[in-house]
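Figure 6 in text form: structure in, sequence out.
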């Protein structure tokens, strides 16, 4: 399926990329009020938010809005679990009723929380959160369904986690601005850093990681056992070439051919 957005002005398709103090370059901005669905219907309703925006919306299988929730502050992520929508705002996680879009409850995190980057609800109902502490350091933490800290990783390391996922003893983190996906074997502390251009989302499915490479405009599988990569979807041109090195992708993004 494809969700189309009305683009404000025509542009030449290029890879977008982030520059400190300048923001995202070469991004195409659409009007979400004019979104339409073409092709097959969605397999299920979806909940979306505009990153760094204030709007969370549930769309039905035909792409029609079921409800919209306008929050007072910006949100970076949204997750749907067992009929509830979890999103982050300032120092807490808030939970909406998935059927109505009404705010149900707020979840307070440990007192040293300065900001919350994401919240991913796991199958055991615990939650992975990316936190910026009040001292400026970042960490990926696992907390209970009421916000109490269970375990913490990477505290004090210079990184910028946008998402993390855990299955069993394996933890993966999208370290967006360091251009890598971190894979950690928790029991042994064995770690592998996978070079990825602006990874924005990671999902563990058995022995594979589904990676969204934001500014390379593509989604692909990484096989943990074989290190093979399999493309799911990409933008046009060289975006589909998974054999390119990280440096080649960066060069392509900044000087697209």
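Output sequence:
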């Amino acid at each position: 399926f494809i969700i189309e957005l009305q683009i404000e002005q025509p542009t030449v398709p290029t890879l977008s990329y982030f520059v400190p103090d300048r923001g995202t370059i070469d991004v195409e901005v659409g009007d979400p009020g004019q979104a339409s669905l073409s092709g097959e219907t969605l397999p299920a309703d979806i909940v979306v938010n505009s990153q760094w925006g204030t709007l969370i919306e549930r769309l039905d299988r035909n792409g029609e809005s079921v409800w919209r929730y306008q929050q007072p502050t910006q949100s970076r992520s949204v997750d749907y679990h067992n009929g509830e929508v979890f999103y982050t705002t300032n120092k807490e996680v808030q939970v909406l009723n998935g059927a109505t879009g009404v705010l149900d409850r707020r979840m307070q995190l440990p007192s040293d929380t300065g900001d919350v980057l994401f919240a991913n609800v796991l199958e055991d109902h615990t939650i992975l959160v990316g936190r910026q502490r009040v001292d400026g350091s970042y960490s990926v933490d696992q907390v209970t369904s009421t916000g109490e800290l269970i375990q913490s990783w990477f505290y004090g390391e210079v990184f910028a986690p946008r998402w993390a996922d855990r299955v069993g003893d394996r933890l993966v983190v999208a370290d967006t601005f360091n251009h890598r996906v971190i894979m950690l074997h928790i029991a042994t502390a064995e770690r592998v850093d996978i070079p990825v251009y602006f990874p924005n989302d990671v999902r563990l499915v058995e022995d594979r990681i589904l990676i969204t490479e934001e500014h390379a405009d593509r989604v692909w599988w990484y096989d943990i056992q074989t290190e093979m990569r399999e493309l799911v979807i990409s933008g046009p041109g060289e975006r589909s070439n998974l054999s390119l090195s990280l440096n080649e992708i960066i060069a392509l993004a900044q000087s697209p051919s």
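Caption detail: The radius of gyration is 18 Å.
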